[in-house]
Structure prediction request, 332 residues.
Amino acid sequence: MRIVSGIQPTGNLHLGNYIGAIRRWAAMQDEAECFYFLADLHAITVYVSPDELRSNVREMAGALLACGIDPERSVLFNHARVAAHAEMAWLLSCVARIGWLNRMTQFKEKSGKNREGVSVGLYSYPILQAADVLLYQATHVPVGEDQKQHVELIRDIATKFHNDYGQEVFTLPDAHIGETGARIMSLRDGTAKMSKSDPSDMSRINLIDDSDTVAQKIRKAKTDAEPLPDSFDALDGRPEARNLVTIYAALSDRTPQSVVEEHSGQGFGAFKPKLAELLVETLRPIAARLNDYRAHPDAVDSVLERGAERAAAVAAPTLSAAYKAMGLFARH
Ligand code: TYM
Prediction:
């Protein structure tokens, strides 16, 4: 089992990232060889000032370390430091088809009505993502639900490469999606994903929110007047209620069904304070560790540098094999 996954260093980590991905990344470190990276080359697909990007990379690396990613057990790096990602992305962009990219829902959402005005990088973004994963012969890619389509595309690109060039250079990876919390929703609208780009900060819990802010956001979270039923399935059609139960279940490592059973008959007036308490207990130690890393940016940089060296060594033979399979004379 080889695990590879990444996150864009844009703004803060929120609860969706934590439950859908990072918490699971940390748990998988005991089971497999893990490569985790900050997708800084993806972050520049939308303009970001160089100072802000530098600060986001350090901040997000500190946040991953604070969430329990252990650089002794996992390889943690930023992918701009490993040139193989950009090189492999070019090779794969000559294999991927335009029609495949046109089907990517994330591009449609991000470009909206401004399709002609966004960067070419935003469009070819999933090809770089394919390079990120294929370079390391990943077997599993732990992600939230919203990345499933991108991981399926990676398999399509690898399969076409194998068919075109007659050599099995890559491992076909599977998306590894959590049973609970693969899609955490906005606290203001249970039909919209919790996201960094939502203009309302009340829609999400940030990992650095202090206890009062967390409590206030949960208190104000949209719900309905009905009490909790005795089965999770009975929450169909009540997306906000379903979301809060899911968050509680994910953070307490329980099934949503057992959470509903325990609170059956209670209204949200009783459930919300318990959820807020669980969140505060989960986030407090993370925020404390993050503050330590903020005070030691050099230590964070050296973790990333060492991670990049290790990553580059693992990526090199696959990149070489891809050049060779395509008939390119390369320096490798
Ligand atoms: P990004 O930075 O948008 O999100 C990082 C991870 O968090 C998950 N996630 C969520 N999970 C549950 N509920 C939510 N509301 C929620 N919001 C975000 C995402 O699914 C993701 O797992 N393209 C990727 C980064 C990337 C990558 C890769 C991932 C680049 N290369 C290679 C895997 C493999 C992205 O933008 O994730």
Notes: Residues 5-8, 16-17, 19-21, 39, 42, 129, 132-133, 141, 143-144, 146-147, 182-184, 193-195 surround tryptophanyl-5'AMP (CB under 6 Å). The first helix runs from residue 15 to 28. Residues 201-292 form a domain with the Tyrosyl-Transfer RNA Synthetase fold (CATH 1.10.240.10). Residues 106 and 146 are 8 Å apart (CA to CA).
